Every structure is written in structure tokens, then in C-alpha cells.
Amino acid sequence: MTERYSKMFMTKEAYDRLIRLCKDAFPAEACGVLACGMAEEVDDDPSGAACVIDAVIPIRNAHDRPDRSFSFDPAEWTAAYYDMQINRQNLVGLFHSHPRSEAVPSISDAEGFLPAFALSYWIVSLQNKEAPHVQPYRRSQGAFIPLELVIA
């Protein structure tokens, strides 16, 4: 889905939830998935429609060093995916926070990224907790390409 888009659209409510979840997890990395349940017409989108992310679903960080990395709790990931199917939501992306660094993919982010080109990859930097920086990316030919975030 995100392969052909240069922008990602998110509701204000979903954006606020994303920031709150990441701040609440501090100093550990928060992680989870992003979903949408509706398509809207977008004038400058070549396909004519884009998903507006309206669901931020946290998944427990099961990494043995949650202050430095993340990994989805398998049971929570399975439950979240099942719930998305029941609620007719589309999985759009994965998110995690960087409690002390910029919203730039790290080496471990690149190594751990799922090879699903249709998913977007979101990093929330809490380097400045008063003004978090949210940066969505798409993966193309091994590189993370920044996307513009639009609050819809």
C-alpha cells in the first residue's frame, strides 16, 4: 500500500494516542501496529484513494532489553492481528519509539524489519519529550524512504 504513496494520513485522535503510548512506555521502547478501516479520496494521490490511519494498537515489547530495542510479544501480536480481521481493519504499518534518539532507523531497525513492502514503518522520537517527532517511512530496495505525515 505505502509503496505508491509519498504521504501517510492519520487522524488527530490516532496521532495523540501514538504519542501518549510512546510517552507512557518511556524509558522503554513502545511498539505496535497501525491500522485503518476506511479509504478517502486524495486529490494528489495517483491511485485516487488513501487509507487514513485511525487505529493505533499497542503490543507489549517483549525484548530482553526494552530500553534499547523492541520485539512484539507473540501472543499480543496474534491477538491484535485477529482483532483487526474481525474489525475489518487493514494493517498499514508498524511503529516503535526511540526514547533517546532521533526518528531515524537504526541498524537493528533495518535488520528486524519485516520484508513486507506494503507496510509503513513509523518511529517516534522522544529525544525531546515535550515535542516528540513522528516520522513514517516506507522500505524500498533496502532503504528507508521518509514519508510526509498528514494529520487528517
UniProtKB/TrEMBL annotation:
<dbReference type="GO" id="GO:0008235">
    <property type="term" value="F:metalloexopeptidase activity"/>
</dbReference>
<keyword id="KW-0862">Zinc</keyword>
<dbReference type="InterPro" id="IPR028090">
    <property type="entry name" value="JAB_dom_prok"/>
</dbReference>
<keyword id="KW-0645">Protease</keyword>
<protein>
    <submittedName>
        <fullName>M67 family metallopeptidase</fullName>
    </submittedName>
</protein>
<keyword id="KW-0482">Metalloprotease</keyword>
<dbReference type="GO" id="GO:0006508">
    <property type="term" value="P:proteolysis"/>
</dbReference>
<keyword id="KW-0378">Hydrolase</keyword>
<dbReference type="GO" id="GO:0008270">
    <property type="term" value="F:zinc ion binding"/>
</dbReference>
<dbReference type="InterPro" id="IPR051929">
    <property type="entry name" value="VirAsm_ModProt"/>
</dbReference>
<feature type="domain" description="JAB">
    <location>
        <begin position="12"/>
        <end position="130"/>
    </location>
</feature>
<keyword id="KW-0479">Metal-binding</keyword>
<dbReference type="Pfam" id="PF14464">
    <property type="entry name" value="Prok-JAB"/>
</dbReference>
